[in-house]
């Protein structure tokens, strides 16, 4: 094993090829690519807001969309200046891209005008002036006189001079910022802060400041342009706008498939880059070293296996958070192993180093994504310590393109291996910390974690151990980097997530996507077979097969990605269209039936009276009343009665007018009605601000206590959400006491002209005492109810509490569902396992519970 230290190199003196120049310059231009990707990503969602905006906000969101595209293209322009050596090619690309950059100034001034409440008219007029300057710029670009071939040369790129067509545009934007936007923002600061999130204010200012920081390099000063980092203020602006418009980030990333599109836009770029890089960048002498075989086989399998699985997992259900996190984790794993392949080829070390730096920028975030995936799998919220993992990930990603990632390399029999520097050690330490914390979390909760989640955690632990083992050869220990075998935990992870229940491949149109993808695979396979004899003339059989694999496999996966993944949202929309058509057909059939029924007025009147009766009485009771003309009282031995009452109702009601009071109360009780209906309970009556319902009648069942507790959790959750909204709006709110008791009751119908279904017995009184003896925001149950639900819910014994005319009563608080029965971290919604046990109980099964430890 030979060791080589690395002097962080600069471009060699003299003439070098464009290909070599590109690799030397990659770190300088990479931030611009990130800015471009972020700009496109945000412009898409800003356009979605534009489509749904009201008239007064449409211009704002349209300008925001154009602005994101323009600022993103600024990053792309700066990247071309860093990566392109040939001046004429550079000027051509700058001319083309400035078609998209030109609207930057006028749209930004319009955004500032809108943020001031349209009070600073000068900003609007100045945006018109900037549009005129943009028009002049367009004229110069069309005439081929946008930029001159005279350039300033810096270590970070070549910067062409702008012509007289471009200079007015370049001067107006920074001048207008300092003379108009900044004073207007100061003047209307209170208005902006009141109507917009503060990050929007800071983001717009930072956009102009970073854009202005491009000026020194354009004027010939050796200052790295701030425009490379425009993605930071763009994210601030997007966050500020979306927060101000009550835009839900979770909706953006998952319900709107934002994470899905972002991941696979990035992945598409990487796949194309790999295929073209191998096609045009690898010469026959790259295989002169024998290290590519067999050492190059495991990392190739790992890379393409991880990518293929990420496509399958994410495409299976684009809106599922666990699918997207799993796909992200698989892609990051693949990114890490990518850098291992070129190290086994006989190519320039600068190429090997740059590829490793680029992959480590993404891979630095692997601990953060994997921890989130684990906690999503076990149904818990992300822990507080995760923010420190995130911070270390960001620091490591920033250091990845720097000289601190690697300080040299070792030459082992199987390949070169980079000698890890401080940044690589930081990535490893961050992964080790995440590994230990996840392991502790697993050991604490292993009794509540299902089988598939254990597979997910196991794959994470195995992947982390393989990656940590890779630190050994990078610090001179003669051990093969077993991280090349990442395909093993990758396959385990993909299997686990699909087993977790996140797979959703139903629908008629998705079958078409799969067939198109398979057709593309067959086409490329045929093309590869035809291409093989051509490269066989330059390479040996093994080298030809390896070379062809590295070219064709990325294209195969890209084909699969585009046809299968990108067509899936369209397929889902078509499936929805099919469903809506079927629904409309059903509605048409129903209307036809109603028309026939309407011909018989007597029948229609009878049906209306029956509907009215069912609104008043339960179905079984109503049928008995219709048949016999009366209802016999019935005793139910195990009914569960639920009472609610608003605390402070009288005080809050005194400050409300009658109409608002009735509407507020009706809104609450309407929600209660829907909740108890979902949970198999019967509403009995409301008395003022009190609400009464019961379960286990008029048809007896064995689950009334469980049903009542589930309904109570939903009711308290609804009241808590209502309280948060009222508090945010600085409005008074009601808090709820809720009591439950299970026992015998007698039920019957009272009245001759206004029927009412009611219940009587000591159980009703005890349930009322459970409510009055409870606490606001909590669910108070009796000992009888507790004995029936204790195995399903997390409870708290309160001791004996005095109840009026009832003496001391044992009371318990019900807090949530036990984790093993809950599908959400808060324990409000039951999971599939709960439903299976519930179904058995309802069918009469006797469940034997394990003794609690």
Describe the structure.
By secondary structure, this protein is of the alpha+beta class. Strands 6, 7, 8, 9, 10, 11, 12 and 13 form an eight-stranded mixed beta sheet that branches. Helix 4 (104-115) runs parallel beside helix 6 and helix 8 runs antiparallel to helix 10. Residues 244-248 and 502-507 have low confidence and may be disordered. The chain crosses the membrane at residues 28-47, 59-84, 96-113, 125-144, 164-186, 198-221, 227-246, 258-280, 292-313, 325-343, 355-375, 387-405, 425-443, 455-472, 478-496, 516-534, 546-566. It comes from Leptospira levettii. This is Adenylate/guanylate cyclase domain-containing protein. Keywords: Coiled coil, Lyase, Membrane, Nucleotide-binding, Transmembrane, Transmembrane helix.
State the main characteristics.
three-stranded antiparallel sheet, membrane, globular, 31 helices, alpha+beta, eight-stranded mixed sheet, 853 residues
